[in-house]
Amino acid sequence: MKTIKIALDAAGGDYAPHEMVKGAIKAVQELGVEVVLVGRKNVLRKLMEKSPIKSGISVIDAKQVIDFNEHPIRSLQNKPNSSIVIGINLLKSGSASAFVSAGNTGAVVASSLLTLGKANGISRPAIGCFLDVLTSRPALLVDAGANSDCRPEHLLEFARMGSLYSKYILKIPFPRVGLLSNGMEEGKGNRLTQDTFQLLKEAKDITFIGNIEGYDITRKTADVVVTDGFTGNIVLKTIEGSNDNFLSSMRELGHVFSSVSRLKTRDLLRDIGLGSWTKKLDFSEYGGACLLGINGVIIIAHGRSKARAIKNAIGLAKETVERGITEKVKEEKYEQTSGN
Amino acid sequence: MKTIKIALDAAGGDYAPHEMVKGAIKAVQELGVEVVLVGRKNVLRKLMEKSPIKSGISVIDAKQVIDFNEHPIRSLQNKPNSSIVIGINLLKSGSASAFVSAGNTGAVVASSLLTLGKANGISRPAIGCFLDVLTSRPALLVDAGANSDCRPEHLLEFARMGSLYSKYILKIPFPRVGLLSNGMEEGKGNRLTQDTFQLLKEAKDITFIGNIEGYDITRKTADVVVTDGFTGNIVLKTIEGSNDNFLSSMRELGHVFSSVSRLKTRDLLRDIGLGSWTKKLDFSEYGGACLLGINGVIIIAHGRSKARAIKNAIGLAKETVERGITEKVKEEKYEQTSGN
Hints:
The first copy, chain A, is α/β, with parallel strands linked by helices. Chain A is built from 13 helices and 11 strands. At the A-B interface, helix 8 and helix 9 of A face helix 8 and helix 9 of B.
């Protein structure tokens, strides 16, 4: 089997380029992939001098960097030599099978749309993000932020793409689709979700379980949580804020108890089975979100990603390529379109 | 000073009527208020037989109960003798100064609107809910669920009412108003928040600090978090779900460490200053949310409220009456209207 080659935006994210390079090295060592670092060649070459591995990583020069607060479309026009533009072009030319970036999400989405195009039959690509929950099969939130204003038919697409992704990545045969709303009953919600409810109820290719509420997210009532990108983004960041608070207090608590019991925090947490749990609340274990509905595999990593998160994002990219999700979305949509 | 009389829906909520009666007794004992229990007279009289206090609590008969899943408007029409309808009528007739309910929120909102009416100049009453955060001055979320579909001018009203409430209840002279969005920058958001941003920026009677994101909520960046009732309700319940998970694991962790260190969980948590913190994550410490923009004081308690939460909700009702928030909203709106 041919080694999968993954392009990594080495210039995007809070800890670029150092942690990107470290993450790439980890990925090559642990996941058996090849990584193409896209960023300032001289800087990356210098960082690679200290690398324990001599093969599996290459460098492609990208002289420009798109910052976090830049306007997506304008930044693409102004910076044709940015790591995002050059990295996504590697997919277009077939030089890489996936692109991973912790940089400006809007620019990654816009550049993917412009360069790779939408998958057949998809009108609105969306971000599918695994949520930190307490089970081994995390819920997938779609859309986590690509589309601020949506129509019901877009949410139906999100439900379909999310179901496919959940099915092939998490191996859930019939993922339960829940529509995020402000009440369980069919009549509850805003105009968007009320109209979407009817479409989801009639769709034969998904397993719709009805409306779900905010607290259902962490209770893992649904495998796929469908919502517009505005609400999805706010929910995601609200959970992140809560988890951050929680994790820091757990560490604090652990330190105090360690001093009482003379055990190490990590050992204590592990002994009572909470080690894996705090791990699950840590976004870096997931590594990234997938841009669904694009002709190519694009993984959006968290802006605060360090080496481990980057390695995990590359792992998600590898899985997504191996399971041929992009092709499956195309096929599925084709069947559906021809069926109408 | 005349004792404040508060009507309590003794039939609404998961733990009615037992915990309602217990909460009322606590409130009379600790807060120096009078409580009117509204519910099935015979049942309440029986429960009151065991009461340690003989004055300060009275009973008003209400033979019907509106369930959680009933349609708000229809339930009001079908059940004119429900505890919600009768309780709110006590405000109308001047027999009580506030009404507290852990029952069907939609029915409480609808009945308040029909019976008491909107405050002068307010087009959309909204639910203002204090969020469990780590500081002594919790952020106020408006709207926490009364209005699923909103226009920008409604969100401006929420910002104004929230500022007033925050100012008089929490004594914050110039509450910082943040608009909940999916990005910090002015251009970010959906159509609703983009248009609202302009209105809030121009409003002279509030202290607008711009967009805030999901994780800013727990970081306490803003004193008043403005959003539509659909998003607000989802955010509130998402936080509740996270906190529930967290609290149960803290208890679990506490038990394990207690067995190691032979100290009580509560003592341990208190010793390291986390007791007050877990308390702050517990919705029952807040007790309730206020329905803003209504001609009367209506406090909506959590459906899962037990005695302590009910006592705290009655406390919030007392504070709201004492500080004359309803009158202040009227005055404020009058000034604003005449100024145009």
